User: Fold these one by one.
Assistant:
Number 1:
Amino acid sequence: MEKITSKDNKKVKEAAKLLSKGTADSFLIEGHHLVEMAAQSGKLLYYFATAEQPYSVPGYLVGEDIIKKLSSSVHPEPIVGVAKLSINRPLQGKRVLLLDRIQDPGNLGTLLRSALSFGFYDVIALEGTCSYFNPKAIQSSQGAIFSLNLLRLSEADALALLKERGYPLFGTSLDRASPLEGFVFPDKFALGLGNEGKGMAKSILEQTDTNIKISMAGIDSLNVGVAGGILMHYAAYLNGKDKNL
Amino acid sequence: MEKITSKDNKKVKEAAKLLSKGTADSFLIEGHHLVEMAAQSGKLLYYFATAEQPYSVPGYLVGEDIIKKLSSSVHPEPIVGVAKLSINRPLQGKRVLLLDRIQDPGNLGTLLRSALSFGFYDVIALEGTCSYFNPKAIQSSQGAIFSLNLLRLSEADALALLKERGYPLFGTSLDRASPLEGFVFPDKFALGLGNEGKGMAKSILEQTDTNIKISMAGIDSLNVGVAGGILMHYAAYLNGKDKNL
């Protein structure tokens, strides 16, 4: 394991840039859990750690100062990795999650974690959505990012792709929408979620098959990560099996 | 409206302390939406703003530097208020949310927002749970904090109160738990959610009526805010109406 002592080392500086500008080709992951998940799926390129690790890719022995420089956490675990992923591969599953300008990296990561839990293996982020490779998004995804098929497309390309591949799109909206409870999703479909403040773009909502709302009272909206979790869980495990709902 | 220009003004310093140590008697709220909700419910004590506001409580005219000093946001709205709330009042509703050492203020706030949406008007935070009055928790609650009945109790006191008042407690756990789908909650009950990393304390899980788990695959846990949303929505609007689930 090569030892690095200077924060100005070329490899450290290269990795530090990824804190704000990670891409599919190289992005930062923090902590033992994520580095191990990346290594297991062959996505780990190299890593920095304060002690020897069992991974076969290049590893650099560093001090806590360099770990802190490469981490977005206040109290980081003593390991940071750089990983890569393939994005924009063909749609693979029956359920697609479409994200329209989700801004908060924590919400994005939470949605990816729920997408994996509920069998939405394909995720399309429209332009304007927070980067998949934001360190906070990856952290909140708890590693789900390594098991999903991630796409990033323009609105026009995404809608064309879903149409061409035969995925009806269900939007989420508070206006002119059917209640979720009792709704029956087909076997193959895409579910759309929109921006934290503004919801889904009108231009998309006009092209959906049906728009859906979650019943609630006392307050007029849910956190988008919570809304997405309720919708995906419903589609995966409930899905209007009771016609009396 | 009294004008304050110095960051060292006594009133400013008094409010700044609440950024880390808000209590039920005085806590900070940021932005027009929250300040208005506090004012409407008679919970606003005073406020700082860069322009005149329509509230009847004392207001202080300040510059952006003072707003920034009193805010936990990078780009704060030009108004910050100080509010108060009564806590530990008697249980009022039929559904109680019990929070066992939820650590992240964003998760706490999101859970409060969902609790209001799904009619869980009484929330009990056990000791070890993040403060209700953490500015990030209040922000994530989107003002739900002003419409809920909030309690903070020891584990022993909370369990005794629920028993005495006749609320059966349903815990959440991955082990020895019944699947949520098809479960029928009674009319009156308490739902427990646990710490992000460790789940609910064993000592509580042993005293619950039944423990419940959300069905999922591919990953072994959900974000606690998402799990809480799915459970509360289910109890409020689905609740095993289909006996075939």
Note: The interface with chain B takes residues 106, 110, 113-114, 116-119, 140, 142-144, 147, 181, 214-219, 221-223, 225-230, 233, 236-238, 241-242, 244-245 of chain A (CB under 8 Å).
Number 2:
Amino acid sequence: MILWSELAWLGGPRPAQNVALELSGDRIESVTTDLAQPPPTAERLHGLVIPGIANAHSHAFQRALRGRTQQAATNGSFWTWREQMYALAGALDPDSMLALARATFAEMALAGITLVGEFHYLHHDRGGTPYADPNAMGAAIIQAAQEAGVRLTLLDACYLHGGIGIAPQGAQLRFSDKTAEAWAQRVQQLKPVEPMLRIGAAVHSVRAVDPDSTATVADWAARRRAPLHAHVSEQPAENDACLDAYGATPTELLAGAAALSDRFTAVHATHISGHDLALLGDARARCCLCPTTERDLADGVGQARRLAQRRVRLALGSDSHALIEPFEEARAVELDERLATGIRGSHPPSELLEAATGGGYESLGWAEGGAIRAGALADLVAVRLDSVRLAGAPAADLIDALVFAGAACDIGDVLVGGRFVVRDGVHVSLDVPAQLRTAMASVQA
Amino acid sequence: MILWSELAWLGGPRPAQNVALELSGDRIESVTTDLAQPPPTAERLHGLVIPGIANAHSHAFQRALRGRTQQAATNGSFWTWREQMYALAGALDPDSMLALARATFAEMALAGITLVGEFHYLHHDRGGTPYADPNAMGAAIIQAAQEAGVRLTLLDACYLHGGIGIAPQGAQLRFSDKTAEAWAQRVQQLKPVEPMLRIGAAVHSVRAVDPDSTATVADWAARRRAPLHAHVSEQPAENDACLDAYGATPTELLAGAAALSDRFTAVHATHISGHDLALLGDARARCCLCPTTERDLADGVGQARRLAQRRVRLALGSDSHALIEPFEEARAVELDERLATGIRGSHPPSELLEAATGGGYESLGWAEGGAIRAGALADLVAVRLDSVRLAGAPAADLIDALVFAGAACDIGDVLVGGRFVVRDGVHVSLDVPAQLRTAMASVQA
């Protein structure tokens, strides 16, 4: 198949013009720019073509909380929100997980997301009893991604404790494998037989995983060259508890457990120290920011500028899915920093778009994707330029306009591995609003 | 005409169900809820009906800067952005102002905005020479609102100085009437012959208007019971210059010039003191926050929580139109505060929606609008609930979902004064993307 577009972003501040992409299987075979006219057999993509977007941090089931935690939140916090999230987590089963994740991943596809990193910790039945298939919940997520047509890295999360030195209780029992060795045994049974699936590891947080167990998970990931993610310093209370218990910050603790490497991604890293920044930078680790969730959960403004100064590469995630708006996620990195510093322009638009695409692909273990170049995965998104948000933006400023004013509803076509998943803003196989209604009803019942 | 909807927000945390609205002329004559079935002749509005949204602070021409100030912003600030804005202001004439404002107001209509407060200071020809019609620019804005179908309060701004004790220069010459008396004479010639138009006053800022001139403008507004707006403490540098020159904060200076009243709206008020808050509260003044612009211009997080505690009523504006997304504007009031405080839930969703609707109508001098009740202006918006953003939200949580996840592209129908301006997401008389392309091209040429 040959695709042709008047505008395609191959990196840098400006899009290339009159671009033909020759696809072969799930890959881009060649990229040709400045063509005088479209190749005769080419299929035209309207608007601006960008690489597929990676959602590097997702808890799909939390989509059911959208619009349901604000009214009762008076003088609430991350921790009161967590109680609502636990109530939801306590109510799910593999069927409702499948319904929720399928609808949520399909909503992502419509927003131009072609790769999801699902940070998955809801493993077991009520009370912590394993399902007959101990990976029944993971299997539901894998099936959901297949049916929604998106690429998936299942970041299977180890979660053992309800807090440092505290036994898990309530919904947390469903998260726990009891030991890191049992976690590894269970995860070992997940087979990425699907070409659109990879398995990665996650340490939920220093709250939920002790240093020795972290070392076990890190070793598991290292042996397989698999991505390893962890929630890091999302809230000041986590730092306080960690310093009290260990005399070290969460990042220092992870470093001590040999978790930091170029396969490691710190999620949030909102409240990290200068030493933490140095540790992440020296390890060539990555950081996934989730600005719309960090706003929603009152986490605070992230450290994007200081991370970039340390050459820590950024990825982006919609996390709790309060919104699934990748361009809002990208611009919020810069905008929230402006609120905190009074300085404009710490991150050029192309750097933010790179975080949303290639940065996320690398964080999730798909370094061969997230860019438009010969040999890369043919994960592609065409953004319509005829909406009121983007109409009239000159070609030289399109990346600026896209990142700072684009919206999910501007997405026209989405291809994953060379196959159309979304055409003209419509999912090719799922009625996504209907899927969402059904999924939400199953949870509220 | 009788309108019928399954859901309509009449205020409070939850929408009313099965609602009929009988219209008469430009007003709502009656509101009936819990109808067993639709009245036979009723026209159905799909989704959730809310009052029309007020955009209480707009500089329409700045829409041309969207997506054009980010790339070059490295280590920039509000003040470097202002240079780009001045370059644009210097290039406009009444024709390009008309084209830009018409397209921008039409984009607003599509976003559910039925009333605009245009804070208008670009009055004169290059070098400060008055046009043959000294209100040629204001007339262009009035015509633009008529053609876009939105209600308008033209907040004609007095602007005399380039800074405290500094003569205007460059583009600023176009803003200046030289004296407040000359400003009043010019504004006096603006006749609100149109029922959709009202004239209000503005003091650009304490940077641009000295205290005696402010008193003249305030007196003009008081005699006419007209709204009076002013930019207040948007940046710390304004406070510093004001304290240096006068030994008073901008709000204290405005209070001393008798500008504060229940017709006064402080725009931004980002960096105000406790005493300023007390002054605004005691005067029953209002505050217009513009969160997406305040993010873009690195102004800082606003004072919404402290203002609400002082019972200062809020309005919202999209200001520079980096985005025209009223629900993002509304939720950002709460979300940005969360980033600064770590606290969730300072503002219930219904309070944020009230700021976007009735709060703005009152700020702009249309207290008879911005609510769905008998006797109110028939300015109405129907939000589709079948998008992926809102599908599946239960009726009890709809206001929560709308404010925290709704988008401009969810707007279905918009009525202003009982007449449809937007139907099924399409403007009834303008091709808005084409208008935007033409307007942008006229400015870039």
Note: Residues 212 and 429 of chain A are 45 Å apart (CA to CA).
